[in-house]
Amino acid sequence: MNTPSTDRPRAGWRQVPRDLGYLLPGLPIAIASFTVMVTGFALGAGLFVLAFLGLIVWITMFAAARGFAIAERARVAAMEGRPVGPAHHRSPTGSGLGRLFGYLRDPLAWREWGFGILILPIRCFTWSMTIAWAAAALGGTTYVLWEWSLPRNDADNETLAELIGMGDGRLADVALTTTIGLVFLSTLPYVLRALAVTESSLVWGMLTNETAALRARTDELSRSREAVVQAEADTLRRVERDIHDGPQQRLVRLTMDLESAQRRFDEDPDTARPLLEGAVMQTKEALAELRAVSRGIAPPILTDRGLAAALAAATARCPVPTTLDVAVDRLPTALENAAYFVVTEALTNVAKHSDAARCHVSVLRVGNSVHVQVTDDGRGGAHLGKGHGLAGLADRLAGVDGRLDIASPPGGGTTISADLPIPATSTT
């Protein structure tokens, strides 16, 4: 992550247009932000006793401060050619009046407000220095072109050359002024860079908060980890229930049939034969149910042949006619598992609840993410509420920073979409 002191542009003539483009508009922006911040704070403080109207004024003031801060970060980013950030705002919690007061507990909001006030005196200096240095450089180096237009009839109007004793001729005046202009011109890139760094350092220091952003990211990862752990626990309970209700019961019956056939085999082979045939049937059904359970966890075809082959097998098993469009290569294992889980859970929902006649599955790579979409023409009404088959999808995707979206209006079919970011370290 960039920091204020790394990868800064160096002083040079190629950087001068960017520095000027940043410094020259600075003073008008600073005047506007100073006016809004001071007026908003004073007005809000005065109106606080009037049914908390001042709170609304302050929230509006903080919103304006955030807008100025966004503009400043964008201007510095354009000048330095790198993103400026992170800038993490604390999200307000609660409801009603407590939520409104939550906006006042955001440290970055107060720093943005303070920046809007502090930047004015600093820019009064940097803007004045920019104008003065640029004017001296441009005016001095071009003095020979416009010197003739200056009035010289007044005997008391002495040139700089005359004041320092270099003589009273026009040649001495032009030579001295041009030399001074060249000095200002040669130092202009360095002075502009120093003035721009002064302002940008304040932006980096007051309008970014890497520590808070990292802390928020840590909290988010902790919540994601808890969600994934809960999703895995739910999956294990579901697998345990499926095994108990299916293969385990069939294996119990198989054992009973085999024991019964064993007792009757010597005395009455004709009676034992149907029991053996039933046992064979129970074995086949138990194996089929075990395969179905294993496919819900991680099918071998996914590991051996990849996501496209696994999804082709999953859509082939769906009782609703399903078309498949897969346009991705091999992905990291976690992403392939997540995409497979999304599709299989969505197809299960289609088969059990949608009353759909057609279904379409697409898995496409869009930029640096994988977009998974399952669409049917059923009755709609699907949601992520507890007790529904789709409840664990969002938790499962949280482990890979995925995002889930469900559009299912009543009578309008269901579209389940998932965006799975591809890690930067992935080479696929």
Described by strand count, sense and barrel closure, the largest sheet is: 5 strands, mixed
Rg, nearest Å:
37 Å
List the uncertain runs. Answer: none
Beta strand % = 5-15%
Total of DSSP H or I helical runs spanning 4+ residues: 15
- Averaging pLDDT over every residue, what do you get? 80
Helix fraction by DSSP (H/I, runs of at least 4): 55-70%
What characteristic shape results from the CA principal axes?
elongated
Structure overview:
- By secondary structure, the chain is an alpha+beta fold.
- The chain has three domains: 16-206, no CATH class; 246-297; 302-421, Histidine kinase-like ATPase, C-terminal domain (Heat Shock Protein 90).
- It is built from 15 helices and five strands.
- It has helices spanning 16-23, 26-47, 53-80, 97-102, 107-141, 143-146, 160-163, 170-206, 210-245, 247-264, 269-297, 300-305, 307-317, 333-354, 393-398; strands at residues 322-327, 359-366, 369-376, 403-407, 414-421.
- Strands 1-2-3-5-4 form a five-stranded mixed sheet.
- The longest helix has 37 residues, at 170-206.
- The radius of gyration is 37 Å and the shape is elongated.
- The chain starts with 15 loop residues before the first helix and ends in a 7-residue tail after the last strand.
- 25% of the residues are buried.
- The mean pLDDT is 80.
